[in-house]
Design a protein that fits this description.
The protein has 60 residues and is an all-alpha fold. The chain is built from two helices and no strands.
Length: 60
């Protein structure tokens, strides 16, 4: 297994293969910022180091 090329806390230059997930997060954030309902909660579950925080930072 290859080691993870990212350093914890660093912001990656790009998120490979996360377009669908990023779009879903952005839709929810746009609703909330616009004063609308957020809908069902989004829950991010994955092993450590797979990009959960990076995904949320990219959407913010």
């Amino acid at each position: 297994m290859e080691p993870n090329p990212y350093t914890p806390g660093d912001i990656p230059r790009f998120l490979a293969g996360r377009d669908n997930e990023l779009a879903r997060v952005e839709v929810v954030l746009d609703r909330v910022v616009g004063g609308g309902p957020a809908g069902a909660p989004l829950v991010f579950v994955a092993p450590r180091g797979l990009g959960k925080t990076s995904l949320l930072r990219a959407a913010a």
